[in-house]
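Follow-up to my post from last week.
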Amino acid sequence: MTAYTTRTKDELQTEERAVRAKFEELKARGLKLDMSRGKPGKAQLDLVMDMFDVLKTPEDYLDGKLDVRNYGELSGIPSAKALFADILGCRPAEVFVGGNASLNLMYGVISKAHTHGLLHSEKPWSKLEGIKFLCPVPGYDRHFAVTQSFGVEMIPIPMTAEGPDMDAVEAAIADPLVKGMWCVPKYSNPDGIVYSEKTLARLTHMKPAAADFTLMWDNAYSVHEFCGDYVPFPDIISLCREAGNPDMVYEFASTSKITLPGAGISAMAASEANIAYMTKLLSIEIISYDKVNQLRHARYLKDKAHTLTLMKKHAAILGPKFQTVLNALDKEIAPLGIASWQRPMGGYFVSVNALPGTAKRAVALCKEAGVVMTGAGATFPYGKDPADSNIRIAPSLPPINELEAALEVICTCLKLAALEKLLAK
Amino acid sequence: MTAYTTRTKDELQTEERAVRAKFEELKARGLKLDMSRGKPGKAQLDLVMDMFDVLKTPEDYLDGKLDVRNYGELSGIPSAKALFADILGCRPAEVFVGGNASLNLMYGVISKAHTHGLLHSEKPWSKLEGIKFLCPVPGYDRHFAVTQSFGVEMIPIPMTAEGPDMDAVEAAIADPLVKGMWCVPKYSNPDGIVYSEKTLARLTHMKPAAADFTLMWDNAYSVHEFCGDYVPFPDIISLCREAGNPDMVYEFASTSKITLPGAGISAMAASEANIAYMTKLLSIEIISYDKVNQLRHARYLKDKAHTLTLMKKHAAILGPKFQTVLNALDKEIAPLGIASWQRPMGGYFVSVNALPGTAKRAVALCKEAGVVMTGAGATFPYGKDPADSNIRIAPSLPPINELEAALEVICTCLKLAALEKLLAK
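User reply:
Got it. Predicted complex:
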């Protein structure tokens, strides 16, 4: 095989006929596969079923002297705070434990910034015109949807191998209307990039013009290696404190991909001043999140070390799925020179950069052949990838045999979209 | 015993010395009792421990074909929608099932009305000046705290034996800035009043000036009789639909006082158009609430009839506690003519109207003697009871022997506060 770009028009036409025939053959198989979201597979869900056996007698429901079954204890139960503090590397007093969804806590911060303002806000953001947010791209569509929903203007920041392009970030924060930045610092969604220490140093030492500039630090994959050993990662709360920016960050985490996506627990970590401020606002909204589930998780996961043993079991299921994706891309696509991709060690995605101008078409072709992917463009603010190139592959849900079938479709569609593009020139 | 108001000054002074001596004696006992909140007692929590045994094998976690352990199904699982629809009398398609806190869903509606507007809003409420809300008084402090938190002006509406004073309501809604009304329609908090059919008819047929006027219908005590049989109550969603006001109401309910306060499930019922509108807004905030807990509840509570058998067990624990309160008031306070109170058949409170001008003092005296009550005034917007009269007694948490001790304190403090007031004239 030679790269498409080195082939003659005749050669490309021949290839196009062959690839289209293959596509029609795949279509005829009537596949129905969903790879649109980073959903764990059934085997991963089955891993943790013993979690529901840890609380049995009424006495089991005491966390110290606290009966977790009753009202109260808004900021979370002590043992769940200790668990997240251990996993994240911060102090228990810097943790607020929520319900089953960290997205809910993130939305809460942005929503309350608009309606009430944050700790250092001069006024609620809803009273300002032209608020902006920095969005490293490619990034997570649900983050962008939150800021979009509040009418916040989103500024794309290119990702580098070390994290967001810090020159671009430092230039942008001179604008007092730039109020914050979305970050997935470890195994970024979708690239799987880990922010470097240099990036962390520059981020935590920033001097934004806005006093209430906030890093929305979604540490979604803090212990989510699927390949190799656990990789330590610095605690952002401590780093910001040491850099003299203690209140500049809200960190988020959850057990959605440790225990169960539909029934885990989440946490928000921040300076004690931020936690106190946000807890007061949240006291109007809820008496407490589900403390029985918090205790169940604290008892089941125990601590970071024990959590990491569970993550090894997830890795044993996930690793081969990621390898299946990479194998197919390496074999079918690499020689053709029509795409590049990341080789992440953790997280939930493989980020593919297809031939510019072909991502939308490739994803549409996949859908036609029964494989639903994340919409092309979804990894950019407003769903607009200027290069129409990035495609997010989520290999976690299907079993390996279905994944192989899906990859056959994906590779065929990447080829066909590239051929159509090259032949249309 | 004769009424205080018929006694001479000398007689009152003698009584005051005796009551103060009694107060000092009670204070010396060093009690530490919390009656500030409608918290179920431990015996009630223990009632439902078998709830955690209903899901065992991985197959148990299927609701139809839906694996409730994974992401998705934002508006709730089918069986939990069916359960709430059965309890409330509406259709499953009119139900959104949430997390452990109905307050969270209520806050969500008010918050989104401000940031995004409701279905029939011309613009988000945050873009308007002088928004108002109707607040039947006495009412629930957490409701008032939500609207106060958003800077909404609250207009007190007097409660009558049939519900809110509808003449006052109908006059108020001619103002297009009046955007809604808080209601606890069955066993109102704190009076325990059940809205009459006449009140329901007038409420559902209202023609408010504001197109997005919303009844915030907190049906917190829909199956919460502690005395006598279940009392049927009309479904507000159907009534509003039939009255030509299908989108005028959001109803809220939870299992906080059916299963567990810290770990129940909640629901929001509304027209299908409202549910679709709110689900779309909520899709930005959360992928789904805890569906395992939803399924656990659906399997455990089964349906309305089975839920009512559980409520009988709660009533067997709660009934005697309410009787203890009423017995003490009847014996100690009634003959003195210094207070009146409701005799509810359900709900979680006894609402006492003390001699005007004495509620704050009585509650402060209780605290001095080790009995923490809901703050006087808390049942009014901004915490301001113009008559300084209403006191909310929450008898559910303490066991009977502690409750008897607490009532001795409460009755003594009601007397002492009244005597101080009468003697100061």
